[in-house]
Amino acid sequence: MGDGRRHPQPGDLIEIKRSLVYRHWALYLGDGYVIHVTDVGAKDIFMSVGFSSHLTGTAKMKKELLKDAVGNNDWNVNNKYDRSHTPLPVEKIIQNAENFVDMEFQYSPMRNNCEHFVTLLRYDDKFSEQV
Prior knowledge:
This protein is of the alpha+beta class. The protein has helices at residues 49-52, 66-70, 90-100, 114-123; strands at 13-17, 23-30, 33-39, 57-65, 74-77, 104-107.
């Protein structure tokens, strides 16, 4: 599954284990920062299928330190889709990600979740095995 590296490189997908079944996804930007989907208005609870699978609502792309996004959860680098999809050049991934910081959008666990977002940035294609 994941490659388990604890020293991510810019453009890497970060899998955060939020519960036994749910994984939150972020994209590593470099210098300790990630971008990931958060629930608008939430202070400490991240938008996740585990917390809000029955909800569709407004979400926001947030740039923050990896350690803050992860909290007490376990995480690893997991570029598992590289076997079937070609990543964009790292510079393009980071440029695209920076353009999404603080952007709000309609969240949908089935069509527009955290994994959809990071795969769009890394591969220019939205997909998620969580749904």
